[in-house]
Structure formats: structure tokens, C-alpha cells
Amino acid sequence: MDKEKLKIDLLKFLLILKEEKRKKYIPNFYEDRVIYIFENNKEFYDYFKSYGIKKDKNTLDLLKYSVLEDGRVVALKKNCDNLIQNYLTGELEERLSILDKQLTPEKIEEIHSRNKITYREKVSEWESMDLCAPGDYASSAAYRCHTFNNCHECLLDFASSSLEYDKFEFKLIHLPYPSETPKKKSLSKDNKN
Questions:
Q1: Per-residue pLDDT reduced to its tens digit, 99-125
Q2: Interatomic CA distance for residues 1 and 42, integer angstroms
Q3: Can you give the residue ranges of every domain in the chain?
Q4: DSSP letters spanning 108-150
């Protein structure tokens, strides 16, 4: 058994830590004793880059619980997830704040005059129909469910790509069958044709 593996096993045993092999952000993760073990600093920094976090390395280094002699990095999953959640929430709030400043009463009136709705009205429309945001160019719909705290935030994030949207309008144009179904003829012995 190599020396570094023994150190990790001893660390896990003494501190009652559990290693999470699958490195994936989970919102509101509260279990204190779960750790990630990254093979090296590059993998550690790339994990945060995959979520769009472009913090300087000194800030990310604060999340390291331990760095082993062979270069592997041990970090608490809870701390990693908290940083990602704070980044995603802050980024969304910042984007929505910018959009809301653009939506003056005159701009909203202009959007409505074109028979369109604002992005917040679109979110309300989607929620009233119990719709979910689809996956996008960056990720699947399942990934979006793990990224956001609730469906409302997810829909706001998805809708924030544009100020205005078309309304859903459902019209019944043509039925493929007659609206009244003809009554079936009885085939009893009394009714002969």
C-alpha cells in the first residue's frame, strides 16, 4: 500500500470522512464529512471552471482541506458546493437586476404593443402551465435541476436570455374528425334493414 493512500485512509478514518467519487454540485448540500479528492491542482481548478467560476487561484486555494505530497488535493464537498451556489445565485441576481433596469414602464408598454410579453411574464406563463426549462447548449435539463434551488430560479435563468417573448396562443383550427359522433345502428333481430 503506497504512503499517500495510507495517509488518505488515515485522514478519512480519524476524521470520519467519506470520499465522494462523483464530483458534482448539489444545491444546499449540508453534510459536513464528505470530501473530494482531486488528482492535482489542475483538476481542482478545472472543477470550478466547469461551473463558470473564474476566481483567482488564491481564493480557490482557501477551499483546500489538505494537499498531499503527491499533489492530490482534498477539499470538503460542502465548501465547494457553497462557493458554486453563491456564485450561481449571485450571477443570476446580477443578470436579473440588469434586465429589470432595462424594463422601464415605457419599454414594457412597447413590448405589449407588439403583442409580446416580458421575460418575467413568460416565467409566470410557464409556471401556470407547469412547464420545465429544457436543456440548453451547455447542459441537460437534469443538470439544471441540480444547479438551481427551485424551478422558479431555473425558469428565470432560462428566460433571462431575452427581454421579450411571444405569448402561447392555442387555437383549435381543424378537428380531424366530426365534432358529433354518429350513433351506431343496432344490429338486433328486431331492427332489419
A1: 888 888 898 999 999 999 998 898 888
A2: 25
A3: 3-82, 103-166
A4: HHHHHHTTEEEHHHHHHHHHHTT--PPP-SS--HHHHHHHSSS
Taking the C-alpha atoms of residue 39 and residue 21, their distance in angstroms, rounded to an integer, is: 12
CB 144, CB 154: distance < 8 Å: yes
DSSP, res 176? S
pTM: 0.51
Residue 64 and residue 85: Cα distance in Å, rounded? Answer: 17
- For residue 64, the surrounding DSSP H or E stretch is strand 64-67
User: How many whole angstroms separate alpha carbon 11 and alpha carbon 18?
Assistant: 10
pLDDT for res 113: 93
- pLDDT at position 78 is 82
